[in-house]
Amino acid sequence: MGFTKVTPKVVLAEVRPGQEVLARRGAMLASSGEIAFSPVVGGPGGGAYGGGIAASLARGMQGEAVPLMVAEGNGSVHYGFRGHHVTVIDLDGSHPMSVEADRLLAHDANMSSSVVFLGQQGGLRGAVRGAVTGQGLFTTQLSGRGSVAVLSHGGTFALRVGGSQQIVVDPQAYVAHVGNLRLDVATALSWRDAVGRGSGEGVQLKVSGEGTVYVQASEEKL
Amino acid sequence: MVSTSPQPLDPSTLPDHDNVPDNPYAYCVRLNGPLFMQTGRMIAYYPVGGGTIRFEPLTATSMTAMVASHFSSPLYSRDWVVANGQGHVILGDRGYDINSYDLDDGNLTVRAANLLAFDAGLELKESIIPGFLTLLGTGKFLASSSGPVIFVEPPVRVDPEALVGWADCPAPSQHFDAGWMGHFLGAARGAVFGTRSGEERQYDFTGAGTVLLQSSERMLEDPHVVRRLEGEVNQLGTGQLRHLAGVIQSRLSQNG
Amino acid sequence: MPWRLETPRVLVVDLDGSKTSAVRAQTGSMVAYEGDVQFKNAGMGGGGGLRAAFKQRVTGESLSLMEVTGRGTVHLAVDAGYVLVLDLAGDVLKAESEGLLCLANSLTTDVTFTGLQGASSGQGLFTTTVTGHGQAALISLGGPPIALRVTPQTPLVVDPDAYIGCVGNLNQSFVTDVSWRNLVGESSGEAFSLRFEGQGIVYIQPEER
Hints:
The structure holds three protein chains of three kinds. By secondary structure, chain A is mainly β. Chain A has one helix and 17 strands. In chain A, the strands form two sheets. In chain A, strands 1, 2, 3, 4, 5, 6, 7, 9 and 13 form a nine-stranded antiparallel sheet that branches. In chain A, strands 8, 10, 11, 12, 14, 15, 16 and 17 form an eight-stranded antiparallel sheet that branches. In chain A, a hairpin with a 4-residue loop joins strand 10 (112-119) and strand 11 (124-125). Chain A is globular and about 50 Å long. By secondary structure, chain B is of the alpha+beta class. Chain B contains four helices and 18 strands. Chain B has helices at residues 64-70, 178-185, 223-233, 238-254, and strands spanning 17-19, 26-30, 35-38, 42-47, 53-57, 71-72, 80-85, 87-92, 97-111, 115-119, 122-126, 132-145, 150-152, 156-158, 163-167, 173-176, 201-205, 210-213. In chain B, strand 1 (17-19) and strand 2 (26-30) form a beta hairpin. The longest helix of chain B is centred in the C-terminal third of the chain and has 17 residues, at 238-254. By secondary structure, chain C is mostly beta strands. Chain C has one domain: 4-Layer Sandwich (Double-stranded beta-helix), CATH 3.60.160.10. Classes of the chains: A mainly beta, B alpha+beta, C mainly beta. Chains in contact: A-B, A-C, B-C.
């Protein structure tokens, strides 16, 4: 399986029985063969594929839902979204991957996923339903072996984190991370000068541990 | 670190009809006879020897006969000019990839917003598919795409926003996925045809030819849609006009 | 301290704690950093441009700079634009203020507003004049920047929304013939073009602002 990058903005996925693909709604550009698309429904951990699909919904920045569609059948699908760049990341199953909720384009349906809110109280919090207080961002955590396609404005670059190193990332530029990483969300008043651009209170992501962070060259939300 | 400045170009080093060197997002044409250009796509030009390059709107040109025989789309005529004169013209379009295409007694239909320029060997008509223009004849034209354009052969089903154009195969038919719609509609089955979201409508291509695709920005307000609707409104009777006013009012109150 | 490119769209600046390695960067352009780095608002870069900015009611965010100091490594980027780094050695660079990404501390700046019909018309350009010795980075939206040479025999006309900056001995004037641009109804864009004469280099970007 896996996604083949056709251009910096488009990936091609081969769909077969047992090899379904989950993608955000609106991401299908073209399909060839016998492919059926249907919305994913189900509660947390529910769904008919693999280890459970995250509530069928990733959460956008304000907590709003990003609906998912599953592609099944026999054929191929070109995926892309609104002209944004696509980065393909292949996971070998040893570590989960977290993607900023709005930036997940598509992934192998056999991977399991959950919604995780990176909150201000430090560390990770479990899936949240209902009102969320404080600053932070929603991420979709994907586990298992498979291929993930993520979106970014202009493409991503990878920063390796390891040892005693700590990297600080502008959350608006954060796309995803893989590995054994700890992300702390913190505010700093002086940060506002640095991030500007209407970012409000100025939230920063402090990344430490062992792994890779994917960052985009822009602070634009998708 | 040394500067990353690219090698400066000038009329002696700019190409006559090609992308700016190492730049898929900018295209240079040395004018050699009239060139039809879509407005707003010029980013720089070198007028030669103290002269000027004239850009005449199609609606106000002196070359009415020539224009009329090459451009038969009243809907889009306000968006086009004829460039005349001497010198190099550099075009850019929203940071899209720009490619030159050659037609040899051929035909190609392309999204109006993505057609940048064509020479007077070609004739332009409106396609039966709204928002698309058909070029016929022998000559060169320039078209843009968000990212490099992708070529796919029919049979293929395409999202309307991803469609850049098609060549040689018949115009597409529209496909509505009944199964998909069944999931979503439920009690609101009747209301869906008024909404445009998700993937409910697609274009089906069959036959022998090539389909051109891109991952494109969603155009929030396409001025061509408004123009087309205005044109159609003249053909409506009073009852129909009242019905349309109601639909528009309901949309306006939805948007709050 | 030399700068480098992580990708064509990301500028990396290493700071060693000294004043000479410190830089001024566009507010909000930091996407990631490592080490002990401080960011502080540095205003617009001096000059009469500030008053014009208030008149224009420009938010100032894309025109303001921040001081970046300390010891560490900073990744800078704006709108996924390509980065153009120029090495100034006593040259004068005139840059569209919005397109400035990063300036070495050794450079001096002056911001002016050139209006089409005076500063109050609302139509015009914010220009940052950069002088001295050191590196200056600009942003080219939509693709790699294009450098176009101007000589007395080859004047150049440019779309102001694609204009990034220029170096050399150039005379810049406004041209009000914009027949290549659709001004009827719904389009946006400046109602003028820029004409360059003299001797120098003009930088443009493939995307209109």
